[in-house]
Amino acid sequence: MRRKSSLVLLALAVFFAALSPMLRWYAFPRLAKIPAHHYQDMVLEAKDATLLDYNSMKAKKVPKVTVVQTLKGNVEASEEIEKTVGKDVVVWDGLSYVQGPDGKMVSKIPERYIFDAHTQEPVHATGETVDGDPVTRKGIEFKWPFLTEKRDYEYFDAQARITAPIHYRGTQDFRGVEVYYFEQTIPWTKVPFPKAMPVAGITPESVAETGTTRWYTTVRKFWVEPLTGAPVYGEEIHREELRGGTLLGGREKVTAFAGHVKMREDYIEHTVDLVKSNRWPILLLTSYLPWGFLVLGILLLSLSLYLEARSRRPADPAASDAAEPEPVTA
C-alpha cells in the first residue's frame, strides 16, 4: 500500500510541478486580454485655463475647460480584422471632446485604435485613423502592457501623430496602490487643425488659406498600476497656439488653449476601485497559483519519497528472531 501511495503522490507532484510554468507562460498570455466589447469614459478638467475666443480672436481666462474621453470597443470590426491577422484584436473607437465653460464645443477628435488584446501592441489595419486621417501607430496608447516594466516605453501622441518616449520616473504609492510614474514631453510641434471647428463656417482649409498655423506642446503624466497596465490617474500640462497669418491681424501668435488638465475626482475613485479589483486575476495567473502549485508539487514529491523509503526499509531483526521457533531437543 505504501508503494502504491508513493506512486500516486509522485504522479500528482509531477502534475502540479508541470502545471506551475504552464499557468504563467501558456495560460496567462491566452487568458489575460482586453475584452473586445470594453467601454470606458473619463472626464478631465482644466481649471483657471486660457481659451481662445474665436469671435474676437483673443485669449481669455475661463474658470474651467472640460475634456470628455470615451473608448468604445467595436466587436464587429475586431472580428473582421482577426480573420486576417490570426490573433485576438481589440478595436477602440475613441473620442476626445473638449468643451468650454458655457458647454459649447471647442474641439472633438475621433480616432480608431487597433491593438493586440494581450500585448497592447498596435495592429495595422484599414481604419486605423486620427480625426479621419490614416495613421500607422508605433508604441502604446491609452494602456500599458500587462506586467508593466520599470523602463521607458514608446507612446503615440494623437495630436502630433508622432511617437515619442514616455519615461519611467519611479515607483509611488497612489491611494493605496503601488504605481509606476511615467512622463512624456512633446515639444512645440506644428499640428493640423481639427476637422470639427468651434465656429460655423470655419474649416481647416479656410484657416490654412490665411497662412495661420496651429502649434502644440504638452507634458503628459501617467500613474500606472503595473500588473494590469492600467493608468489609475493622468494629467497633462497642455498648450496650443495659433501662429502667423492674416487671421491674427498682424500678431505673431495667440494662445488657443492653455491649462493643467486633471482627472475629475469621482473618476479617480472609480478608476482606482476598478484597477484594484482587476489585479487579483493577474496575481492568480502570474504569482499565487504558479508558486502555490510549485510548492505543492515539492511537498507531494517529498511525501512520495518518504513513503517509498518506508516501504523499502527491512523488517526489524529482533522481531524476526523472536518469531523463529526453537528447535526441539530430546
**Largest beta-sheet characterization:** 12 strands, antiparallel
> What would you call the quaternary organization?
single chain
The percent of residues in helical segments reads: 25-40%
> Strand portion, in percent?
35-45%
The backbone outline, from C-alpha atoms, is elongated
- Secondary structure tally: strands: 12
What topology, given as strand order, has the largest sheet?
Answer: 6-5-4-3-2-1-12-11-10-9-8-7
User: What structural class results from the helix and strand content?
Assistant: alpha+beta
Tell me the Rg in angstroms: 31 Å
DSSP summary: helix tally: 5
Low-confidence stretches: none
Average pLDDT value?
Answer: 91
Instruction: State the end-to-end CA separation.
Output: 45 Å
**What's the SSE pattern?**
HEEHEEEEEEEHEEEHH
Quick structural summary:
The protein is of the alpha+beta class and 330 residues long.
What does this molecule look like?
The protein has 330 residues and is an alpha+beta fold. It has five helices and twelve strands. The chain has helices at 2-31, 75-85, 204-209, 265-312, 317-323; strands at 39-53, 58-73, 89-99, 105-116, 129-130, 133-134, 153-157, 162-174, 177-191, 213-225, 230-243, 253-263. A twelve-stranded antiparallel β-sheet has the order 6-5-4-3-2-1-12-11-10-9-8-7. Helix 1 (2-31) packs antiparallel against helix 4 (265-312). The two termini are 45 Å apart. The mean pLDDT is 91.
What descriptors fit this protein?
31% helix; alpha+beta; elongated; single chain; 330 residues
